[in-house]
């Protein structure tokens, strides 16, 4: 999943080398923490959060078949 998130986000941003995805796993959920350069935050979130919602939709559907835990993406500022 980490690689999937990076593959989706890196082409969207101006500073792809600063894209970081960290994994935080608990007993019943998995949280992927996405951080990008401050200048790229708007590109990752998109107008009214449309890009962020699309990224979450793709990752959630891929994770539902892969993991048996609830999966979340947290975009860090």
UniProtKB/TrEMBL annotation:
Signal peptide: none annotated. Its main location: cytoplasm. GO terms for molecular function: RNA binding. One of its GO terms (cellular component) is cytoplasm. It is found in: Cytoplasm. GO terms for biological process: cell wall organization; peptidoglycan biosynthetic process; regulation of cell shape. Coiled coil: none annotated. The keyword RNA-binding applies. Keywords: Cell shape, Cell wall biogenesis/degradation, Chaperone, Cytoplasm, RNA-binding. Forms a complex with KhpB. PANTHER family: RNA-BINDING PROTEIN KHPA, UPF0109 PROTEIN SCO5592. Belongs to the KhpA RNA-binding protein family. A probable RNA chaperone. Forms a complex with KhpB which binds to cellular RNA and controls its expression. Plays a role in peptidoglycan (PG) homeostasis and cell length regulation. This is RNA-binding protein KhpA. It comes from Paenisporosarcina antarctica. The lineage of its organism: Bacteria, Bacillati, Bacillota, Bacilli, Bacillales.
């Amino acid at each position: 999943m980490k690689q999937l998130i990076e593959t989706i986000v890196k082409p969207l941003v101006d500073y792809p080398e600063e894209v970081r995805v960290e994994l935080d796993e608990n007993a019943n959920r998995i949280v992927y923490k996405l951080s990008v350069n401050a200048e790229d935050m708007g590109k990752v979130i998109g107008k009214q959060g449309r890009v962020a919602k699309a990224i979450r939709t793709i990752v959630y559907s891929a994770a539902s078949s892969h993991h048996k835990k609830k999966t979340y993406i947290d975009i860090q500022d």
